[in-house]
Amino acid sequence: MHRVEETLLAGDATDVAPDLLGMYLALGDRLVQIVEVEAYTMDDPASHSFRGRTPRNSVMFGPPGVLYVYLVYGIHHCVNLVTGPEGDGQAVLIRGGIVAGLARTAADGPGKLARALGVDLSWNGRSAAVFRAGRAPAMGVIATPRIGISRAVDWPRRWVATGL
DNA sequence: CAACAGATTCTCT
DNA sequence: GAGAATCTGTTGT
Predict the structure, then answer these.
(1) Pick from A113, A33, A43, A122: which is nearest to A84 by CA?
(2) What confidence score (pLDDT) does residue A80 get?
(3) A32, A33, A107, A151: which could join A46 in a potential S-S bond, CB 3.0 to 4.6 Å?
(4) Across-strand partners of A158?
């Protein structure tokens, strides 16, 4: 298992997102294998960066490899990984994963994943550590329709890993 | 300053 | 399948 270079995260979110599947994210003392992701870019009406830079989404316009954490519905936190060239407003939402030592259902949604990892708003802007282990032979990748949003729902920007 | 929609999840039905 | 919990950024008065 070795750390992923930051240059790898500087690619477009739509390219980086599926590549992140099967990789590991080290947050604090927890390790999570990424199973479900979704890419968000400035041209996406469902993206926080769509209407330009605001105090909340400013991290999305910073350098790649940084965490963008926000609160949705006043209750749940969502964890994103900033990607793309600095200033491009791109990020990959980590929608689901497998947390070492926890049940597989503990992080099977964006909000649940943040909770399982103990991530809250104070993590916004911190740089993330992404690791890659040997490729899982049985892993497959499928693209699926987006859910939980109301705009541009059909855009093929959500990916799920199978066989993990 | 007030109103409102929202990258969700859980609890019923 | 529908509704509540709960708060922030954005937009309109």
Answers:
(1) A43
(2) 96
(3) A151
(4) A38, A144
